[in-house]
Design brief:
The chain is of the alpha+beta class. About 20% of the residues lie in helices and about 30% in strands. It folds into two domains: about 120 residues, no CATH class; about 130 residues, Immunoglobulin-like.
Length: about 350
Amino acid sequence: MNRQVLIGVGLLATAGMGLWAYENQKKDQDVGKPVAKVELPSLSIPDDIDKFSVKDGKKDEVVFEKKGDTWEIVKPFAAKANQETVKSAASNLKEVKVESHVDLRLDDQVKKDRKLDADQAVHVVAYKGSDIKGDLTFGSNNLMMVAGKDNLVFKAKGYQSWSFSKDLKDWRDREIFKFDDANANHLTLSNKSGDFSFTKGDKGWAGTFKGGPIERFDEQKVKDLLLDFKSLQAEEFGDNKTDADTGLGAPEGTLTVSLKDNAGKYTLKLGKVATGDSHFARKDGGDLIYVVSKLVSDRVLSAKEKFQKAADAGADAAKDNAPPHGGMPPGMPGMPGMPGMPPGMGDPHGGH
């Protein structure tokens, strides 16, 4: 190849590299660069909105409505909402403002890169009655698009992404039980091992298994169980599952906690494995099917050994308190006249 051809190839390569760099520079312009000639939209979402929707990428749209003082989920189905979570999201909307215009060439690839496309963006619409008070689409790095300002991108301030990027289960009220464990005075448990009964008296908890006392009974195990159940939360939900799917037609275990002075009774029935080590469950008086953790499942499926002290615990305690070889407890002085005594201690006359 002659020198002129090599030079030509080099020039073409240099030109190609330059064009590539230029196109990528245009495609990835600095985020946050303000453009003065673009009028910034004014956002003023009130703190008394009574409805809002969240569409987080490919997840189902979730719609919330305020009924009285309580937020409820109305889409994709009616369900109790986690009040703290929903209130936090609604409160954050009033804090969202436009900080600046961002100079982006908004084609499909840029939308994808900046997570402003339908598959990745968080789209939120806020209402007061039938009036839309805000229609916002959020991407990465607090980038935001505002309805009515097509093909324009803005930098948002005040937006908390974690308040809206959630799975449906995290918007829902996952509470199963809530009671004061100090008020519990009776507990029954039935599973494949047999029937347990625990009663709290003046001296603490006592337990029976299959109608007889539990040897080496450890009341701390009952207290630990109550700690795990007093604020019981679901991991997930088993919506649209039948008893055949969940095994709740013939539960693998049933736990009932009763409170003193007839203040309440809480019963959980445990079904089949849902996924991994988690099980389906349902409480008495409710239709919802929950998925509960391995810890909860293991408690309901406890065998007798779970409520006993170790078999050698008593022997070890006695051994620790036993006197040393020779019958004298540690630290006790020797008797007069015993061999090995210091001079003068064995003879009442001082050895003289």
